[in-house]
Amino acid sequence: MNLAGEKKKIVSTTELSVSSIPVSKTVPSIVYTAIQQVGPSQFTGICSDDTGNTCVAHKKVQKKYPWILNMADPCHHLNDLTKDICNLPHFKGIIKDVHHTMKFFKKSTIANSHLKKAHRVHMILCGLVSIGKTHFWSIYHATASVKWCLPAIRDICGSHLIKIPDVNSNFSVTEPLAKSITCLESSHATAVDVYVFWLAIMASMNNTLQSNDVAENIRHLCNYRFNQSIHDGPSDIFITSFFLDPCLCLIT
Known about the structure:
10 helices, 252 residues, RNaseH-like_sf, mainly alpha, DUF659 domain-containing protein
């Protein structure tokens, strides 16, 4: 993510070793070294996942270089929100079915071969996408791939009665999160985009969710992660840049 139009990519490699020095002291030292190599004046902000050690490093860096903005990691929070939603009992059944479907076709060469042939018959251009261990938003891509491949899966199973329950509900709820993470991971994403995508996510959830206990749980999780990222973040960079963007002033 960049805060201005002009960007420069710099790669810094650091070797970590086990020692008696606490990690909370090691991380800031590593960051200081990288900043000095590039030049402190070249930095406008610092961002990483919100673990305890990195948060300490952020605060120490900002104390030493006051002009460097301390920012929350929007993709990290959106990834955690996806995990929270998918851990709800309502979605565990569908995720289990998707996982078993992936596992079956991954381990069976014959089944995978028949699936590819059925893809050509049904003119399906994408295949099944696996679920990542820590990239929880990949659950959306996996669910979407099963949905797109379902005609081919039905075909090779010789039955049109196969049904994966609630696939559409999981698809529609996790879709805005997965797409937002993909966009915000771009090198062209700005601080303004973080707040814009959060507004889009909340609006999408409001339009998608129905009035039931599951919907209320999802709303609670969305509000919690929104406040954690925007209202309770280490700085107000996202909402401030949103209101100061001249292009957004034209929106009525």
